[in-house]
Write a structure and sequence with these properties.
With 187 residues, the protein is α/β, with parallel strands linked by helices. It has helices at residues 25-36, 55-62, 80-87, 98-106, 112-119, 132-136, 138-149, 175-185; strands spanning 13-18, 40-45, 90-96, 124-128, 153-154, 158-161, 167-171. The chain has one domain (15-125, 143-185): Flavin prenyltransferase-like (Rossmann fold), CATH 3.40.50.1950. The N and C termini lie far apart (32 Å).
Length: 187
Amino acid sequence: MITVAKKKSGKGFILIGITGSIAAYRACEIIASLRKAGYCLQALMTKEASHFVTPLTLQTLTENEVVQDMFQPPAEWDPLHTSLADKADLILIAPATANIIGKLASGIVDDIITCTVFATKAPVLLAPAMNDNMYKNKITQANIRKLKEAGYKFVGPIKGHLACGRAGEGHIADTAAIVKAARQLIT
């Protein structure tokens, strides 16, 4: 049984979506920075994200249960993705892979992150992280434009060291830049 975090006193409630990228470790830094600033967070992660960072690590940092499966039964009856979406003041996806960007742009809602994003009225902020060729791909760029036109916000990526061993645009934005962008979207 999963417990959806209650809105705690503080500056706001942020759902942080973590996807399958080596940059998933940066979610830990982002969570720590936002918690220090007074925000309440709950992590949502794709199955692929668990190859890079563990649910236990995220639970320890957020002090809330991690949601990995949209079919996990909630502690109280309430469809999980909609109860999460209703409580969110912001949904931050960091790292945002080409896969999650493509799914959102295409209306594919087949995991806890995409279902929650489509059910929320809260702002959505994506911090892309991927290989430079994947980022520059015409389809990826079209998907990003489509999401921006729909009101989604982006921070980064930046030019930096990539997992493939070269430097290029596709490196996740600096933690400070992501935290600043998130804080600006919570009103």
